Amino acid sequence: MWSRVHLTNDEALGGGTLAYDETEDRILPHLHVAVGLKEHSATGHTSHLLEATVQFLTEILIIEVADPPMRRVRDPDLYDVPLLRFGSQTETQR
User: Fold this and answer.
1) Fewest CB atoms less than 10 Å from the CB: which of 15, 69, 72, 94?
2) Residue 60 half-sphere exposure, CB side, CA atoms within 13 Å?
3) What gap in Å lies between CA 59 and CA 81, rounded to an integer?
4) Distances in Å between the alpha carbon of 53 and those of 7, 23, 39?
């Protein structure tokens, strides 16, 4: 399920969320990317971004959503995968 690919000389487009984890007191990014390899006629890869080193960033947009609060809550029924929840902490724990 968790395989890695090393890509160079590519173009990428992504989107995701930044949510706050109150139990661990940290920000949790969740990013999806689509990457095309230039030297292989834009052969594509699409998945979650787990780690990256970026040399040239040409554009990034960050849009703040002040309400409702967004949090990542681990779901024990789904192997503790943190799922995005909207609302207060008591509402997200239901």
Assistant:
1) 94
2) 7
3) 30
4) 10, 28, 19
Q: Which pLDDT band holds residue 1 (cuts at 50, 70, 90)?
A: low
**What's the rounded Cα separation, in Å, for the pair 46 and 35?**
6
Reported as a pLDDT band with limits 50, 70 and 90, residue 2 is low
Query: Long-range pairs for 39-45 at CB < 8 Å and ≥24 separation?
Result: 39/9, 42/11, 45/5, 45/7
Q: Rounded to whole angstroms, what are the CA distances from 3 to 15, 48, 87? A: 20, 11, 33
Q: What is the distance between the alpha carbons of residues 13 and 71, in angstroms, rounded to a whole number?
A: 24
